[in-house]
Amino acid sequence: MEILDPESHQIREVYAHFGLAIYLAQCVEQAIIQNLIFFDLYPTAVNSNQDNKTWSDRFDKFEATEMKRTMGMLIKRLKNAGETTEAIELKLDEVLSNRNWLSHGYFNDRALDFTFEDGRTKMISELEVMQTLFREVDKMISEVTMPVARRYGLTEEMLDQMKSDMLTEHKLKSARS
Length: 177
Fold this sequence. Notes:
The protein is mostly helical. It has one domain (6-176). The protein is 82% helix and 0% strand. The chain is built from seven helices and no strands. It has helices at residues 6-45, 52-67, 71-80, 86-104, 106-109, 117-151, 156-176. Helix 1 crosses helix 4 and helix 1 runs parallel beside helix 6. The longest helix has 40 residues, at 6-45. It starts with 5 loop residues before the first helix and ends with a helix.
């Protein structure tokens, strides 16, 4: 087992907090897409008497289209769907700003801070603040989405089964690789 000196350990901590922050930003993107599925796709598709293949194809196409959008476009679509509160919309603007900074300029803006202990400590703190924001907004969006998802028949048990199925599928793919 490798024992790190304090500076190397702190550098790894910065990278770990950055990784978690960007991951949580992506979770917000996924929460937005899930919201759009239930507030945009489902209302028009559920009662259209489609066979399973047609429904599956329509769902996959919708999801693929949304996944190609930038976070800014997803947020705009979410706001236009009219299912957000003013509090969520304000937080979404903050999420977008933070996510874009993380993705496009964070380490450049913090290059000097990264070279000394107090700067890295500051970076860890600000990344923790962003993590908290992303978790909060993900939860806010889910709280709007889940009651509608339940009305369409999505239960907690079904969600648990989907997670289990995805994990099993992933493990099988990994074993084949």
